[in-house]
Each structure stands twice: as structure tokens, then as C-alpha cells.
Design goal:
The structure is a homodimer.
Chain A (H helix, E strand, L loop, with lengths): L16 H21 L6 H8 L6 H4 L3 H25 L7 H19 L1 H9 L5 H27 L9 H13 L1 H4 L7 H14 L4
The structure holds a DNA duplex.
Chain lengths: 209, 209
DNA sequence: AAATCTACCTAATGTTAGTTAGAAAATGGT
DNA sequence: ACCATTTTCTAACTAACATTAGGTAGATTT
């Protein structure tokens, strides 16, 4: 029996590492497939092909297609959230609000475009996932939004953002600008950092003359 | 036999208008379903239910599910493009660049959020549509992007936008901010105009102090 | 080296959903 | 009212696909 949750094996030398590795390989393949074709359009055989395995064998590692989706969402959200928190905290407590928000934007985009198919899949296909899975992951997403809400609100409180701005509206527009990159960005072409700088500049300075 | 392309019936008094109406009703239902559940996850019986019809009957009006998707995309793109062009041209030739771009943003958002499930479906699920359908609609989308490119480039040429801005990058960020609204906007809550104004202000002025 | 376990495979099974064929309504002109 | 045509329904048919059952080769344990 494979482990259900990560790192709960009790200890036994070299471990059940073969299983662990295969399981991850399948999940990696699932994230890529979900990201590129959507959930419903992804066949278990697609995932199996990309993982170098037969479709039936996936059930040795997972109970269902839905479970895989759920885990992909979890990992993806954890990955961005951690990356963004780390990116901001690395600046230290004296950084300007602009730098803090800029770092958050950069970390979010890097995760989305360069680091994690899990994050990209989460963002791209969440809206078309089965209703029950969406519901189950609402709290995660809410927590992430809340982190950004504080980031922006702190900035406004300290006068780094206009007092009259509708922050929840602005936040959603910003998320849109960032998240939509997954629809058009060619990972080979431009680095995420360049997009991040443009987004930060647009958010703070605008483009008017 | 129902018409294949719109308005190609040769003439016969009151016309095959019953068929025309039903066909449109089915297509409306399809656009709503595609928008809300995605293409692959939408069953013909879902569309039929919402159109007050049985699944098999759809084939009197359409050859396949793919054909319906293709028509939804077509109508949706035509709708936004027309709305945006009209919105801009209505301003007359002496309007400021900021007003022209603002009008384009407003028209795009109104279409997306209030007017057309076809446009919303186009934007939301295009990325997960079968590859061949995507390819078939690339020219349409390219033409629309080109319109916006000129809109922004003209503004920059006349000094209404910063000379150093990477316009194609900015355009994609702006599209993202606008298109992502379809993922979170509650049509009941706020009017599209309010979002449009916020987006225009962000684009030109930014939020920094 | 016998017994057991791990990680996968092959081959059903059962259901779902797109599509089709032919029968019934509905419609509209005469 | 009758007939031709249009429109919709019913009932299969089919293919695809998630899931399950049972088998197997190789590793691990006893």
C-alpha cells in the first residue's frame, strides 16, 4: 500500500522510495496534461503515456482522477504561496511597499511561468474543475487572496498607494494581468522577470505622460 | 435542411424563421454551457435541457458539437470586435487617446460581462478547445489584437503613452486584467463600467503616490 | 529457497455521451 | 380538412474512457 499523505512512512531504511518517485512522476504528468488540455479533456491514458506507465497502473498510486486533480491544486497553491511569502520576507522589514509588492509579483509570476506546472494548472483550470473540488480548495485560495489584500492595504495605510483606490478591485485586475500570462506567455521567449517589472510599473506608475 | 451559414436562405415568404429561432436558442444554450462548464465537460444533453429540446434533436440544426463551438467562437469574437470599434468610433475623430482607449476598454468589458455569453465563452475556454478549432480562429483573434495594437501605438506616437513602454507586453497585461474578470465578476454585484474605469485609471495613472 | 510484497501490466466491465435512423408531431400553404 | 415540409422525439448504436480484477516479474523478507 502506498502512502496516502506525504512523509508519513514510519522509517525503514531506503524507504518506499521507488513508489514515492513513481507517484510523483505520475502527478507531474497529470499537472502537465491538466494544464495543457484541461481536466475533462485529459484521459488517464494521456497521463499514463507521459509518465511511462499504463493507465490501469495509475490506480496503484491514486484512487481516482479527481484525487489527482485535488493534489495538483494543493501542491500548486502551496508552491505559489510559499514562493510569494518567501520573496517578500527575504526583503527584510525595512523594504519599501513598492519593493514588497514588486517582489510578490515577481515570485507569483516565476512560479506560474517557470517553476510549477502545478501552480499553472491550478490557475488555468480551476474554474472548470468539478464543483466539489472547487469548494474543497476555496479556503486555500481565500488565504492567498487575504495575504495579498494585506500587502496592498498596508501599502495604502502607509501612503504608498492612493487613498481613494478600490483595493479589492485593483487586486483582481492585478491578478488578472498576472494570471492571464499563462494563456499567452512563451516560456522560451521572455523571462518572467521582465513581465513582472512591467506589471509593477503599470500598477504603480501607469503609462500616461 | 436547415441553413448552413447565416442568411443564405434564398427567399420564401415568412422564411424558415421557426428553424432560425430554435437554432439560435440552441446556440445560446451552448454558449452558456461552454462558458460555465468548459467544452469537454458540457454534454449535448446539458445544452438540450437548457434549450428545451432533446439531445438528438440538436443534430437537425448542427452537424456536431465542434461545429457549435466554432460558431460560438465566431459570434463571440465578432460581437466584441464590433462593440469595441463602435465604441471608439462613436467618440469622433477629435477624442483624446485616453478617451479612445477608455472607450475600447469599456466596450470590451461590457461585452464580456453583460452582453454576450458568446464572447465570454470565447475568452474563457478558447485555450482548452480542440487544437484544430483554435487554429481555425487564430486569424480572427489576431485581427482583434491588431486593432488594439494600433490603438495603443497611435497613442504612443502622439505622446499620450510613454515612449519607453513595451506596448505588446502592456497590451497583454491589459487583456489579462480585463479578460480575467470573467473568472471572478459577479454580474449582479458591480457594473462593468466601474471595472472599466478602474482599469483605465490603472493603465494611465497607476496607483502610486 | 520459499513465501511474501511491490509495482506494474493486461484484459475486462460498465457507464457515459456523441451520433444516427426512423417514427411522430407540428406547421403552413392550398 | 389535406398534403408536403419542417421540426422534434425516441431508441439504438458506437466509441471512448474511468475503473476494476486478476496476473506476473522482480525484489525483499524469513
Amino acid at each position: 500500500m502506498p502512502v496516502e499523505l506525504a512523509d508519513t512512512t514510519v522509517a525503514s531504511g531506503a524507504d518506499a522510495s521507488k513508489s514515492r518517485i513513481s507517484r510523483r512522476r505520475v502527478l507531474d504528468a497529470a499537472a502537465r496534461c491538466f494544464l495543457n488540455k484541461g481536466y475533462a479533456a485529459t484521459r488517464l491514458s494521456d497521463i499514463a503515456d507521459e509518465a511511462g506507465m499504463k493507465a490501469g497502473s495509475i490506480y496503484y498510486h491514486f484512487d481516482s482522477k479527481e484525487q489527482m486533480l485535488s493534489e495538483v491544486f494543493d501542491i500548486g497553491m502551496t508552491a505559489v504561496f510559499d514562493a510569494v511569502r518567501t520573496g517578500v520576507e527575504t526583503l527584510g522589514p525595512n523594504a519599501s511597499h513598492r519593493d514588497r509588492i514588486g517582489a510578490a509579483i515577481k515570485a507569483h509570476l516565476q512560479q506560474l511561468l517557470e517553476q510549477s506546472d502545478y501552480t499553472a494548472a491550478n490557475i488555468r483550470i480551476f474554474g472548470q474543475a468539478p464543483a466539489e473540488i472547487q469548494r474543497r480548495h476555496m479556503p486555500d485560495r481565500e488565504a492567498y487572496r487575504e495575504y495579498w489584500r494585506l500587502l496592498l492595504e498596508d501599502a495604502r495605510r502607509d501612503g504608498a498607494l492612493r487613498a481613494d483606490a478600490d483595493l479589492s478591485l485593483i487586486r483582481m485586475l492585478l491578478f488578472g494581468a498576472l494570471n492571464w500570462t499563462v494563456e499567452w506567455n512563451d516560456p522560451e521567449k521572455g523571462p518572467a522577470d521582465k513581465i513582472a517589472d512591467a506589471a509593477t510599473a503599470m500598477l504603480f506608475d501607469g503609462l500616461g505622460t
